[in-house]
Structures are given as structure tokens and as C-alpha cells.
Design a protein that fits this description.
Layout (H helix, E strand, L loop, with lengths): L10 E3 L1 H10 L4 H6 L5 H20 L1 E2 L2 E2 H8 L2 H23 L2 E4 L3 E4 L5 H22 L5 H16 L17 H4 L11 H11 L6 H27 L15 H18 L4 E3 L3 H6 L5 H16 L1 H6 L2 H19 L8 H16 L3 H32 L17 H19 L1
Antiparallel strand pairs: 1-6, 2-3, 4-5
Helix pairs in contact: 3-9, 3-10, 3-11, 4-18, 5-10, 5-15, 5-16, 5-17, 6-7, 6-15, 7-15, 10-17, 16-17, 17-18
């Protein structure tokens, strides 16, 4: 991402894909639903294949554009404009949950933290203090307001009992002796990830599981594709340094290729699908504009290996404040782009935003948005033709005849909608 795409976006294992992978390994819930049990190596082999498919879609061109660029250009503006808003709310929602501001409730699913109970609300209070601090510093045009807010919340968390300073002393199970944690990292023994991965090439997949494997690979590929697409649009859209007037990020093809290469490399090294993550928005909001931001993030990940206690000491409440504020910025900069004057566009945008947050999935939000837009546009187009056929024949002399209805859903959008219908319904049938 830093050297090929040269964009301020960071990559890591996707949480949604982690859960998918975990569910199909060794007789998990997903394996029970699909009727097959997959080994660790077979699961990583599926991730690798999905990455290769992803890479091919990022390389093969038709009329000068890759498949992924065609998919992006074919997406309705109503969906594209809502993605940034949805991701902003999604990031904020994650922050609220991490801080304990929003908690689970058996009756209403979610609820506000109980501020009458100190033990349960102190983390939420620290996060809100951090959020207010970031907003005030940003208002005063202080550079690095997000980082200062995180550090400030970390300090405030000490007397609140939220920041555990014992961690930095290496007494809480997190040691400064990093080499002990990586002693067997490059092991090639029989039980290593490397051995499991290579064995999958010789053993193949369970007998009779071809269709299931294909559907799982397509699912992984679609989640990776649309999660990445949504993330980069959400992080770069609306910023003319990083995107064009249509909110299409610069170096879009190279971003997607970087993401696909990362997926292949991640599978070979023993991790689930590597994707561009939504927290990249924090770097962009802090001023990140080039690949130097991505390179710095990678270096900080590397440094974190050697200074794990220091980074582990920062409470989730402190980082949650940053996530919430990034959500504020993404809402502020992008909600005006959603066309609420058109009923179909407004409904599509609303569903994209709400489903993205409530389903905890960028891909599902985009999928519902695509399906709703295509279905409503098709019905409206048919109704307009009926109206045109009736009214057009009754037009009096001298009156201007109404215009013929125009079909405004691209072929690419129809194909993507069909894929999402398969994504939503076929796994249930299996």
C-alpha cells in the first residue's frame, strides 16, 4: 500500500472474515451448517484462492479498466455517496461499544451505559473525556489532536482505574521479553501453520464439498472486495487530495491490487484475509495523504512487537474516543452528498447506512443498498412506462409529449446485484 498504491491506508486481518474462517475450521458452527469439516490448512488454502481471484480481478482489463474499476464505476451514486456516511457511523458505533458507552441489553439489544454504576461506566466516562478533548483541540487547530486526545484519555484513565499501569512494568502477563513470544514463529514442525498449509495442497478438500468450497471462496472474495471498496471510499471520498469529483480514490486500481497481494501473502503466512481496515480513517483525518502514512503505520506495528507493554497499557476507552471522532468527521464531510430529494436515492442511501451499522458489516450494507436500488428502479421504470403509454396517447394537440422513461441501472450494477442475491440467499439454502 505504501510503495505500490502510495495511499494513506493500512491493512490487517479483517474481523468479519476472521469469524467466517474460525467457524468452518475443525467442526465449528459454520462447518456444521455447511455439512463439512475443514482443516486449518484447507481454510487457508481457500483464503489464498480467494486472494488469487481478487488479484486477477484487479489485473485483467476490459476497455482499459479492470473488473474492480468497472464494478466501482457501475455502482449507483446513491450507494457510493452513502458508503462514507455508513462507515462513519460504523466506526463510531465500534468506538461506543469498545468504550462501554453502548452496551448489550437482553430486551432492547443495545442500551446506554448505566452511569449510576461506577464500575461499569468509568470506561465510558474516560472515552467521552477523550472525545471532548480531541474535539476541543481540533477546534483550536492543534496539530495531532487525535494522538493528544488518546494520550490524554490514557492519563485520565489512571486515577479512574481504567488504565492499568502495571502492564508497562511487565507484571500482567505481557512481557518486555518479546523474543520469548516469537521463539517458534518460523517453526516448520508437523503442527505448524506452514505444515498444515502445505498439506492442504496434497490432501485437497473433503469429498463432495466442491460446490460448498466454491461458494465459500466467492463469499470471501466478495466480502474482501466490498469491504475494501467501502473502506477506501469512506476514508478518501470527499477529500479532493485523495479522490476525484465522483469520490473515486486516486490510484484505485493499485489500492485494490495491494489489497489482493496482502490477502495472498497473509494466507501463506497463516492469517485470515488481510484487508484495508476502517481505522485508516483515523490516519486520514489526522492529515495522512500519501503512502508515507501507510509505511509509518507498518513501522509502528513492527515497533509494537518490541514495546508491547507500552501499547497494551493504552486502554480501549482511549482509542475508542479517536474512533468516535473519526466517525464525526466522516459524517460531517459526506452526509451532504446523499441525495435525499429523490425518494429512491434517499431510501437506498438510508438502507445502506443503517444496515451497515446494525448488521456490523460494510459488505452487507452495500449489498442491501444495491439490491434495494435495483429493485426499486426496475419497478419505477415499469410504472413510468405504463404511465407514458397511457398519458402519451392522450396528449392534446400542441402539448409537448412526455419523455420516454430512461433505464438508469448499469449492466455492472445488475451483475453485482445478482451476486449479492447469491451471497445473501445461497448459503442459507446450503
Amino acid at each position: 500500500m505504501a510503495f505500490l498504491a502510495k495511499m494513506p491506508l493500512a491493512q490487517a486481518s479483517g474481523m468479519g472474515l476472521n469469524s467466517l474462517l474460525g467457524s468452518i475450521i475443525g467442526g465449528g458452527v459454520g462447518a456444521f451448517a455447511y455439512g463439512f469439516t475443514f482443516s486449518l490448512g484447507q481454510a487457508f488454502l481457500m483464503v489464498l484462492i480467494s486472494g488469487v481471484v481478487f488479484l486477477l480481478l484487479s489485473v485483467i482489463k476490459i476497455k482499459g479498466k479492470t473488473f474492480r474499476e468497472l464494478i466501482f464505476d457501475g455502482m449507483p451514486v446513491a450507494v457510493r455517496s452513502a458508503i462514507s456516511v455508513g462507515i462513519g457511523l460504523f466506526i463510531a458505533y465500534i468506538g461506543f461499544q469498545n468504550a462501554g458507552v453502548i452496551v448489550s441489553n437482553q430486551y432492547t439489544q443495545v442500551a446506554l451505559a448505566d452511569f449510576t454504576n461506577w464500575d461499569t461506566c468509568k470506561s465510558a466516562i474516560v472515552a467521552l473525556i477523550g472525545l471532548f478533548l480531541i474535539a476541543i483541540l481540533d477546534k483550536l487547530n492543534v496539530k495531532g489532536s487525535v494522538i493528544l486526545g488518546i494520550l490524554g484519555a490514557t492519563v485520565v484513565g489512571i486515577p479512574f482505574g481504567v488504565t492499568n499501569v502495571k502492564i508497562i512494568l511487565g507484571t500482567e502477563g505481557i512481557s518486555w521479553k518479546f523474543w520469548e513470544n516469537f521463539a517458534n514463529f518460523f517453526s516448520v514442525g508437523e503442527t505448524s501453520v506452514f505444515a498444515s498449509f502445505t498439506d492442504a495442497f496434497s490432501t485437497g478438500f473433503p469429498e463432495g464439498s466442491v460446490f460448498t468450497v466454491i461458494m465459500l471462496i466467492i463469499t470471501m472474495c466478495m466480502i474482501d472486495m466490498f469491504d475494501t471498496m467501502g473502506t477506501i471510499v469512506g476514508c478518501c471520498g470527499g477529500n479532493r487530495v485523495l479522490s476525484d469529483e465522483n469520490n473515486k480514490p486516486h490510484n484505485y486500481g493499485k489500492i485494490m491490487m495491494s489489497d489482493a497481494i496482502a490477502t495472498c501473502a497473509g494466507a501463506a503466512l497463516g492469517t485470515s484475509t488481510v484487508t484495508t481496515f476502517v481505522e485508516s480513517g483515523a490516519g486520514v483525518s489526522a492529515g495522512g495523504r500519501t503512502g508515507l502514512t501507510a509505511f509509518t503505520t507498518a513501522c509502528m506495528f513492527l515497533i509494537a512487537i518490541f514495546a508491547m507493554p507500552f501499547f497494551a497499557m493504552i486502554p480501549s476507552a482511549a482509542t475508542a474516543a479517536a474512533l468516535i471522532y473519526v466517525g464525526v468527521l466522516m459524517m460531517k464531510n459526506n452526509v451532504k452528498n446523499v441525495d435525499f430529494s429523490n425518494a429512491i436515492n434517499a431510501t437506498t442511501g438510508f438502507l445502506t447506512i443503517v444496515v451497515m451499522v446494525l448488521s456490523y458489516s460494510i459488505t452487507k450494507g452495500i449489498g442491501i443498498g444495491m439490491i434495494s436500488y435495483t429493485v426499486m428502479s426496475a419497478i419505477a421504470y415499469g410504472a413510468e412506462w405504463i404511465k407514458y403509454a397511457i398519458v402519451g396517447k392522450k396528449t392534446a394537440e400542441g402539448e409537448e409529449a412526455p419523455e420516454k422513461p430512461k433505464w438508469n441501472v448499469s449492466i455492472v450494477a445488475l451483475v453485482v446485484t445478482a451476486l449479492f442475491l447469491v451471497y445473501f440467499f445461497v448459503p442459507t439454502v446450503l
